Amino acid sequence: MFGNAISTLGNPYTLLIGGVVALTMFLSNATGAAADFNHEFLAIKQLNLDKSTEQMNAYKDSIKAVAFETGQNLLDTTKAFYDIQSATGLFGKDVADITTKVGNYALVTGAKLPDAVNQTVKAMKAFGVGVDGIDNLLTANAKTIQLGITTYDELARVQTEFAGAAAGAGQNVDTANKMFSVFTAIAKDSVTAATMTKSAFEGFTQAGTVKGLKGIGIEMYDVNGNMRDMTSILKDVSTQFKGMTSKQIDETISKIGGPEGLRNLLIKLKTDANGLLDTFEKYDKVQFDWSKLSKTPKVISELYQRWQKTG
């Protein structure tokens, strides 16, 4: 599914069709939303009482431009600006850049903009991601859709469930999404997978886990006292499990204890370590050229200019 989506990004006809759809969406949505735009913009004004009239007028124009470029509903785009500034404290071009990236992501993937924005800002805060890291964050999510049994909308809704726990365990967004991808193959749905992912990260920081893994020769912290990457730890656990009997593995898992997510993860290493580690490797090998999305706004802009000339 993801592979087909990626291949269409380089297809000029697909981009043209996408541009037509986006332009149609913009024109129809803008007509219906114009009356409510100023009302929605009042909330943004309340965030920027220290800004001049000139700055706010420019900001208003920026919102309209981003809505047009990304083919998103004007009101959704206005709310996106508000949510991003509220969550990050950013203003102006930084907010516009983030909204544009997330808007293009939503347009191409079919994700809902409000969900995508909510997911992005919470992940930014949880993982300490700045404006420069947005592409990597969105790419990590795109990789997850290819490997995990989930959809863009589902990931947007549930990622916030485990992002905080992952960051608390010293893990980045790639590691967090890798773990979630693994659990989507075990759990009945994405919500359950997210809950398991969260509890796995929480379990990894518990004293019983540190002690239990140290008992089989695995250190969870590096020489500087920082938590190692969890995928590296799990690879070490897999290596140790290969030299142990089934009884010894069960005893180790029992000693470690911990929440359901952690236990399921260790059991997965016992029963299908190759499958788990293969997911990690496939994730790292996925190539996603985010710059291709920049073609979409250009197509929309060209279509809009043609429409103006013929209108």
From TrEMBL:
Q: What InterPro entries does the entry give? A: Phage_tape_meas (IPR010090)
Q: Where is the Phage tail tape measure protein domain?
A: 68-258
Q: Which domain of life is it from?
A: Bacteria
Q: What is this protein's record name?
A: Phage tail tape measure protein
Q: Which organism is it from?
A: Saccharicrinis fermentans DSM 9555 = JCM 21142
